[in-house]
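For the sake of transparency, this paper describes our internal protein records without simplification. Such a record has a labelled line for the sequence and another for the backbone structure tokens. Nothing more is needed to write down the fold, since each code stands for a local backbone conformation. For reference, a complete record is included directly beneath this paragraph.
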Amino acid sequence: MRIEKRQGHEGTGPGAITPDGCAVELYTRLPVGDEPDIITAAVPAGAHILELGSGVGRMTHPLLERGFTVTAVDESPEMLQRIRGARTICSTIEDLHLDRDRGETFDVVMLASFLVHTGDPEERRAILRSCARHVAEGGCVLIQREGEDWHTNVPRERVDPSGFTLRIVSAEPVGDGVNSVHAEYEFPDATWTQTFLARPLTRDQFEEALREAGLRVDRYLTGDGVWVRAVKG
């Protein structure tokens, strides 16, 4: 499957760059935070998780270690080549139809990496519909949102304990409620940049987007509202 470069998305730095500007080698270096613990606390033990936009497996591998079964989906074959121990599927999220093609649904569908904030509202609707059609009855969808000040607290910089510096340099409006975000990742031996389009969503706008897809918030999993557990209905 060949995916065309996404308009408004750019990436620079060593190694392969995906159509949305993500650098494969960069994502192999980024540490996982507390996300696996948040997910583990929100879903049944041993659940089968459909991870949409898995990348190189930064969260896939810790979830496997916690006893979950993971099906990892990403549009980048270069990203998926880095995953070990999980079933992998190369596909865009919006075009995925495991429910129809194989009769599969999942205990948990996970949409991380702020993918719900895609700049294109039609793409967002298609992504959320994919979440809804792949979650089993009684299952849940876990979604990672941007923080409330993600687009306004710029520029900002964070030095990670593992030794790299992340800078969100700018978030500039480009029209229709969409911002062009520029980020830099500086390591001692290499620097990567990524420019991408993102649409800020208030909590009300986010919950309305879920309702359009036949989903609703079950509960917010973190005090900042970044991680959300949604269910059908």
